[in-house]
Structures are given as C-alpha cells and as structure tokens.
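Could you join me in thinking about how sequence relates to backbone shape in a protein? We need material for that, and I hope you will provide a protein of your own picking. Label the sequence line and the structure token line clearly, so we can match residues to local backbone shapes. Would you write everything just below, so we can both look at the same thing?
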Amino acid sequence: MAKSSYGSGTIFQRGAIWWVQVCVDNKKIRRSSKSTKKSEALKLRDKLLGKKHRREITGGPAESVLIGELLDDTLKSDIEESTRYIWKLVVEKNLRPFFGKIRAARLSTDLLDDYREKRIAEGRSHSTANRELSILRTAFHNGRKRSPPKVHIVPYFPMVKETTVRKGFLSDEIYTKLRDSLEHELKPLFVSAYVTGIRKGEFLPIQWSQVDFDGGVIALERDETKGREARTVPILDGDMRDLLLASKKERDESWPDSPWVFNRGGERIKDFRGGWEKACKEAGVPDLNFHDLRRTAVRNMRRDGVPQVIRMKISGHKTDSMERRYNIVDDDDLAVAKEFMERGMKLRKSAAAL
C-alpha cells in the first residue's frame, strides 16, 4: 500500500485505487477517489479539507444522522400537547416524505428552496411553507444542542417575508349563519371563541372542573395557556352560557365520566378542520379562519368599551401588538379621529390669524 502525506490530509492506495483520509473532530474520515489516478485523489483531498474548514463534514455519529431522526426527537421534546399534535400532522404529511431519508449533514439551502417550490406548486402559501420549515429549523437547533450533538451546522433557512396580514372579521349576521351551520359538538367551542377570543389550543384542553357556572367564569390552568399564566375568562349570558349548559347536560346524561368540555361523544376534540370548513362554506364564508374569531372578539370588546388591559387579560395578549398588527380600527374610531383633527386644524388657523 503506497501512502503519501500532504498537509492535514493523507492519500494512499488500496490495490490500484487511490483513497483519501482526513481527520475531523479526532475522527478519521476515509473516502475513495474511485480512480487509479493520483491526481483525482489530490482533488478529493482538497475538496474534503475545504468542507472540513466550512464545517460541512463532521466526525462521529452526526455524520450519518438522518433528518427523520431529528424530527422524531423534536416530536418527543417538551412542547405543548396541542402543538405536538399539529406538528406531527405536518411532519408525517409533508416534512418526513421530503426530508426524512436525507442525512442532516447534507441539508442545503437549495433543498429548502426546492421544498418551498413544491408546496407553492401544490397550492400552499408562502406563510404555510414558512411555518412548516420553522418546525424543521427547530429540529436542527435541537439536534445541535444535544450531547453529543446530532447536528454540527444549522444551514440557512430562507423565509419569505409575509407582507399580507389576515384581516378577517366575523360580522354579527354571519355569526348566526355559521353557528347554525356547525355540527352541535362544535357550537359551544365556536361561540366561546367568538365571545372571548381565547386561542384554540387553550380551549380544547378545558375540563368541566374548570367551569364555574355560578361564578360565570372559566379558569384556565397555567400549563394550558401560551403565556404559562393562569387566568379566568367570563361566561356570557346568551349563546355561550346556553350552549355550555346544554353540553354539560348531555355529558351528565350520556358520558358522565368524560372530563372534556369540548368533546365528541365524550372524547376530547383535537381536530375539527373538516367540520369547520364545511360549515364556513354553507355560511358563505369559505375563507374564514378559526383564528379570525380571536381578532373579532378583541374588536367587539373594544367597541363595547372594555378597557384594553381587560381585553388583554381575557384574550391572553401580553402586549397591544395584536391590535396594531391587525389594524383593529372601525368607522367610529375614524369618525372621532376626523372630528379631533378638524378641530385642531381650525384652532391652528385661528391662532395663525391673530
């Protein structure tokens, strides 16, 4: 076996074929040039040294970790159950089929661009692709933090700027049509979200022990809220109270051992996209998003004179960014602003004339 050392890389022969050896992270990485020409081995050595310098190759087990393994680790990580459920759907339907069998060390920005192009061709938006790729990015960051690391380099994840902010609101007229179109299991959830603006992920885990009809409140546990802070929300008289009471009666009569407020046959509701989309089409609002109820509730509370600090406590917003981000303003606000602006202009003109 002839052997020749060149700097930090070594080339040698096995039979007539030239091989290259490079030491990375105290591990020996060997590659065949698949050629009997020494010049080809030299080219391969220089290429490997370049990758070593750029940390595109690593020693140890991280070299062979598949992206599917990183996704599995992330789904097992400490995330909220509602988040885990949604992420698993995304992983199994979209991310794993495309990335699962690719080595993590070989993920490139070009591959990420290819995935985005595929999703856009399938009729999905850039914002949807952003959300899906952010799950993959989390998986890579988690892999880098492990001991020993399963990922040494997190590639650049190109995210398209989302310039279109959803501005959907639900009118009182459509509210009635949509309520009547929904299957009866979803009506209490819909009305409660329309009134309070609570996140879907905060509603679904609520149990009957948290509902106080006498006090007229629902207590949200700390581990169920996005901000990890316990809070209470009101039960309003009318549809919300009536539908919750009807649901409680049905539960007591049919499945008394079920703890879940929002349920189907006593089983906790986890996914209701099919029923939601069907009802929205029947009500004439096929593009309405369930999250639009959150914006609508905050707007309605604002119109009803509920102070901002109370609106934020009910809906769970920590800052007023939501109202600014979605431009929650109505005709009355504009009319008041117009009146003040015209009054100020008149005062300035009068002062200038003196």
